[in-house]
Design goal:
- It is a single chain.
- The chain is an alpha+beta fold.
- Among the domains are: about 210 residues, Heat Shock Protein 90 (2-Layer Sandwich), CATH 3.30.565.10; about 160 residues, 2-Layer Sandwich (Ribosomal Protein S5, domain 2), CATH 3.30.230.10.
- It contains 21 helices and 23 strands.
- The protein has a 7-stranded mixed sheet with strand order 4-3-5-2-1-6-7, with helices on both faces. A 6-stranded mixed sheet has the order 16-15-17-18-22-23, sandwiched between helices. Strands 8-9-12-10-11 form a 5-stranded mixed sheet, sandwiched between helices.
- Strand 1 and strand 2 form a beta hairpin.
- Helix 8 packs parallel to helix 10, helix 12 crosses helix 19 and helix 20 runs antiparallel to helix 21.
- The longest helix is centred in the middle third of the chain and has 39 residues.
- About 40% of the residues are buried.
- It binds ligand TSJ.
- The site of ligand TSJ has 17 residues, from helix 3, strand 2 and strand 5.
Length: about 650
């Protein structure tokens, strides 16, 4: 062994590690921030594997002021004995031999529970120095360092500074400790980011239930140790993702099964959201591009849920099957599988390509979720899932019909549609508003009383919408609705485009009676289903006409509810006269302007998405035939008139 610890036998080693330095991108993807953290993950992954295999329960990560990072576990310790083929210690093999040709993200050896240290040599090759300690009754140590060839300035890295040494120092600990300093001549930045590390360690803790992972950033003035440990594993992960949301059932569905040498684990919990949040992992590595495990999971869910829906009567013989998206509306799920010989594909090599995974995950999903249909204790979950999926289906069907109607109409007589619209003269959408007014007579007053430059009026005849028993398809055949669609300019459903919106405020103006409430509910349901963004972005408002006029000679006050009425009566004083408005039609143009349309004096309520969702629910119940449902509807419907039901009430 030469003085620099570099003997002729190590030539191969250096040439192996040299390959990593020549093309770091091949091994760690990039030499940017991502690549820098990648060499830390190579080490962390090995420690996590030891824990996942049940030999360790704690993994600790520390960042130091000198720019180095360390990882320690309390496992069996990296093998210290001489490797029969390599004729050097296991530790030396792990840190100096490249595995499997070193393709980027090569995890072919993981989950085997066999060969540890995959990727550790890559970290060594890209480090200024690296130290290893193994605790097994005594402390073993080995150091690696880079070396500059003064003759040509070339840097060799990962050179053993001697063989693995048994220091004979006694220890009660068992496990492995690795500390390294990334090579600043390789990486564009060598500053580890605490947020990146913390987030990933938390994720790893969720994915490996019961493993305690700690993180200490000793670079900061007052270092604190973060600790991540989840006994519920991915069940806790799903609960965490759903924090602050309304869940449809309290305990996530959880499945863990091994099939065809693939360990398959997933957890599901639905919320009242409309989007799906599915996160998948293979061997603890995120697969944001999805792949065969996700495909198998999704098709499994769709098949078994449709089967159960039929068995349990949620779908009748004549009904079509629901589609996958229906069952996934509001679904939060984690899919985590562990397997050998992983093949990644896709743009960013984060998509699982192994075709054999699909049938395995699909069949586990089907057999395990079949329990939902059998287990009495799972009935609530099942019912909530079905309810959600059926509602999604309803919205989907309605959206498609709406699109067809809109398309047919557009090709026919699109221009004629806006016939009844009294448009404003300004073309600056951000300053304009459109009033959708119930009834021709109120519409007439509104047209006369308005600010012509910025206020457009769209009168609804009321009558066509006034039938209580209306299915949404009929609503969409409705000419008034089609007029609204073309007046707003945005299109509907998946064709919706906010940038084409012709008015900043869409103001619904209807009477404060049951008919008015009904029209409002229908319109909100329509916006909720076909122009949801319009509500989400706060463009939909309810105009508030006053209920009372209190006056005496030339003193006039308006009251918008009974509480306000008392105050207004006091203001006007003895001898006041009182008019109760039964509808918008009773107001003349100037009264309507002053009380309901003038931006300086009117009251508008901005419609929140919850308001609209509630309206849609009412309409959906209304469409049912049950007398009880209808009675309950009428009850609700009365409540719907209450001002307080809306989230935002603002005088603008
Ligand atoms: F990646 C690494 F090598 F740098 C590294 C490996 C870093 C850290 C922090 C820990 C580890 C590691 C390796 N922890 N635990 C192990 N275990 C083994 O390598 C091991 C131990 C015993 C046996 C056995 O069959 O007796 C097998 C293996 C793979």
């Amino acid at each position: 062994m030469a003085a620099n610890g570099y003997s002729s036998g190590d030539i191969d080693i250096l040439e192996g590690l040299e390959a990593v330095r020549v093309r770091p991108g091949m091994y760690i993807g990039s030499t940017g921030v991502k690549g820098l953290h990648h060499i830390l993950w190579e080490i962390v992954d090995n420690a996590i594997d030891e824990a996942a295999n049940g030999y360790a329960d704690t993994v600790s990560v520390i960042l130091y002021k000198d720019g180095s990072a360390s990882v320690e576990d309390n496992g069996r310790g990296i093998p210290t004995d001489i490797h029969p083929k390599a004729k050097v210690s296991g530790v030396q093999v792990v840190f100096t031999q490249l595995h499997a040709g070193g393709k980027f993200n090569n995890d072919n050896y993981k989950f085997s529970g066999g060969l540890h240290g995959v990727g550790a040599s890559v970290t060594n090759a890209l480090s200024e120095w690296l130290k290893v300690e193994v605790y097994k009754k005594t402390v073993y140590k080995m150091d690696f360092k880079s070396w500059v060839d003064k003759r040509n300035g070339k840097i060799y890295a990962g050179i053993p500074q001697g063989e693995l040494e048994n220091t004979k120092e006694k220890t009660n600990k068992h496990g492995s400790f690795v500390r390294f300093k990334p090579d600043a001549t390789i990486f564009e930045t060598v500053e580890f980011k605490a947020e990146i590390i913390s987030k990933r360690l938390k994720e790893l803790a969720f994915l490996n239930k019961g493993v305690k992972i700690t993180f200490t950033d000793k670079r900061s003035e007052n270092p604190v140790t973060e600790e991540f440990c989840y006994d519920g594993g991915i069940i806790d992960f799903v609960k965490y993702l759903n924090e602050g949301k309304t869940t449809l059932y309290s305990e996530p569905i959880y499945v863990c099964k091994e099939k065809d040498d693939i360990k398959i684990e997933f957890a599901i919990q639905h919320t009242d959201a409309y989007t799906e949040s599915i996160y998948s992992f293979v061997n603890n590595i995120p697969t944001p591009e999805g792949g065969m495990h996700e495909v198998g999971f999704k098709s499994g869910v769709t098949r078994i849920m449709n089967d159960i829906a039929r068995e349990r009567g949620f779908l009748k013989a004549k009904d079509q099957n629901l589609i996958g998206e229906d069952f996934r509306e509001g679904m939060t799920a984690i899919i985590s599988i562990k397997m050998k010989n992983v093949e990644f594909e896709g743009q960013t090599k984060t998509k699982l390509g192994n075709p054999e995974v699909k049938p395995a995950v699909e069949s586990v999903t089907i057999t395990e979720l079949a329990q939902l249909g059998k287990d009495k204790k799972k009935t609530e979950i099942l019912e909530k899932m079905m309810e959600k999926a059926l509602a999604a289906e309803k919205a989907r069907t309605a959206a498609r019909k709406a699109k067809e109607v809109a398309r047919a109409k557009n090709s026919a007589d699109g221009a004629k549609l806006v016939g009844k619209l009294a448009d404003c003269s300004s073309r600056k959408a951000e300053l304009n508003e459109v009033f959708i007014v119930e009834g021709d007579s109120a519409g007439g007053s509104a047209k006369q009383g308005r600010d012509r430059q910025h206020q457009a009026i769209l009168p609804l005849r009321g009558k066509p919408l006034n039938t209580e028993k209306k299915r949404i398809e009929e609503v969409l055949k409705n000419e008034e609705i089609r007029t609204i669609i073309s007046a707003l300019g945005t299109g509907i459903g998946s064709d919706f485009s906010m940038k084409d919106l012709r008015y900043d405020k869409v103001i619904i103006l209807s009477d404060a009676d049951q008919d008015g409430a009904h029209i409002r509910a229908i319109l909100l349901t329509f916006f909720f289903r076909y122009m949801r963004e319009l509500i989400q972005e706060g463009h939909v408002y309810i105009g508030m006409p006053p209920l009372y006029k209190v006056y005496k000679k030339d003193v006039v006050e308006y009251a918008y509810d009974d509480k306000e009425l008392k105050k207004k009566i006091e203001i006007v004083g003895r001898g006041y006269q009182l008019q109760r408005y039964k509808g918008l039609g009773e107001m003349n143009p100037s009264q309507l302007w002053e009380t309901t349309m003038n931006p300086q004096t009117r009251i508008l309520m901005r419609v929140s998405i919850e308001d609209a969702a509630e309206a849609e629910r009412l309409i959906t119940i209304l469409m049912g035939d049950g007398l009880e449902e209808r009675k309950a509807y009428i009850q609700k419907y009365a409540d719907f008139n209450k001002v307080d039901d809306f989230e935002v009430r603002n005088r603008d």
